[in-house]
Amino acid sequence: MPRNPSTGVYSKPAGTTPSVGQIIDPVPWNALTTDLGNEITNSLPRDGSAPMVAPLKLASGTVSAPGIGFASTPQTGLYLKGGGLLGFAQNGVDIAFDNDMVYAAKSGDYTALAVDDNAVHRFTAVATLTLTAAATLGANWHYTIIADGGDVTIDPNASETINGTPTLRVPNGSKCFIICSGSAFFAFVTSDDTHGECRLALSGGNLLLSRFNGRRLTINGASEVIPSAGISLAATGLTPAALYYIYAYMNSGTMTLEASATVPAVDATTGISIKTGDATRTLVGMARPVTGPAWSDTAKQRFVRSWYNDPGVSLFSNFTANRATTSTSLVELNSEIRCEALVWSGEIFEALSSGTCVSGASSGGNRSSLAFNGTTPEPSGSMAIVVSAGDSIPFSAQAVKTGLSEGYNFVTLIGGVQTSGTGTWYGDADSRRTSIAARVRR
Questions:
Q1: Which residues partner with 261 through β-bridges?
Q2: 258 with 298, same domain?
Q3: DSSP states of 106-140 as a string?
Q4: Does 2 fall in a domain?
């Protein structure tokens, strides 16, 4: 008879247990030999020369004694977990695998459940993602969201936190990977866009942070979208002649600018320049209001600088009247010729002054040089010696300055006479005005 299909036990036919002197009945013995032949035919050859023709049924096994294993390592193999799940054992230890990745689109608020482990959900509108209790989801539960149509706010259960905070906002256009520790949540927000895609400038009397070669700015570790119209800041309430750093921050989801005297620092986590001690504020520039208060960005006063994508600034100033001195020491001839600028740490301030000067003494001479933030002359300069009183001679002086302190700086023209008389630098008419042209750059 064939093998019992339920138990796998083979019972040989009756009458096939011989005794001495017994006459063998061919019927049961033929059945026995037929069964043996069938069993041999249906067995699985050890050399792999033939395949199975029906399902191979194994013992359920355990993690320490798998139902199918290896002779050399019996604790490594496959076994049946509870609930009919297949288990993988390696040296007696269960090996866990991710659930299948499942994609779904969400158009509104959603609560992430245990079954969402390894899921990817794309949110097509502003939404709040509520997380089930961490203990319920368990350690290693993980989930990915894509904000594609609006910001998504992640709200953990009760007093639980994500990245140490009660909530986390994923800006539109970003994606976020969330993992559960069993008691809290941690997340990493990323964007395909680069950051610092902006420039600060003066527009219509206000500072304007606008998009430049993109639309992203990192604020508090998240990639935020700069509004298409930009964001502005008036000088209202600020102190003239004071240096302000301009920071961008998120105010209830709206990007906003603020002016602060607090110097910036580099955030150790993101590498972004932030307001010292406050990662919610990202540095975007610096500015210095003038009397009013009002913002100023003219050829003589470059008092608005961008931290991102700043091309440097060019300056130009000239005398509007003849300026004279009888000093034998170098003095500032007149402050109207100053070129004033805000300078970032590490920038170069270069300047060139040229014009025409005249000495009031025979065989007299005028000395001209440039000075930064005072009257200390730079190495380069000009000495103009005349034969007769009233002779005019062109001059030029050039300087390149590094190592200036961050913030307000100026370059000016200083001059003096050689021994006696009055030295005059022209500025009374176009085509012969004494001037300074300057450039500040990184």
A1: none
A2: yes
A3: ESS-EEE-GGGTTEEEEE-SSEEEEEPPHHHH-TT
A4: no
For the chain, how many structural domains are there in total?
3
Question: Is 415 inside a domain boundary?
Answer: yes
Tokens describing residue 29: 């013995």
Residue 408: domain span: 313-441
| 233 and 272 inside one domain | yes
pTM surpassing 0.85? no
CATH code: domain of residue 132: 2.60.120
Which helix (H) or strand (E) segment holds residue 143: the answer is: strand 142-147
- CATH number assigned to the domain comprising residue 339: 2.60.120.1340
Per-residue pLDDT of the chain (442 residues; tens, 9 = 90+): 567 777 777 777 777 787 887 788 888 778 778 877 777 777 777 777 778 777 777 788 888 888 788 888 989 988 888 777 788 889 988 887 777 899 999 999 999 999 999 999 999 999 999 999 999 999 999 999 999 999 899 999 999 999 999 999 898 888 999 999 999 999 998 876 668 999 999 999 999 999 999 999 999 988 898 999 999 999 999 999 999 999 999 999 899 999 999 999 999 988 999 999 999 999 999 999 999 999 999 999 999 999 999 999 999 999 999 999 999 999 999 999 999 999 999 999 999 999 999 988 877 789 999 999 999 999 988 887 776 777 888 999 999 999 999 999 999 999 999 888 899 999 999 999 999 999 999 9
Same domain, 146 and 175: yes
Count CA atoms closer than 13 A to 68's CA, side-chain side: 8
Cβ-contact 214, 197 below 8 angstroms: yes
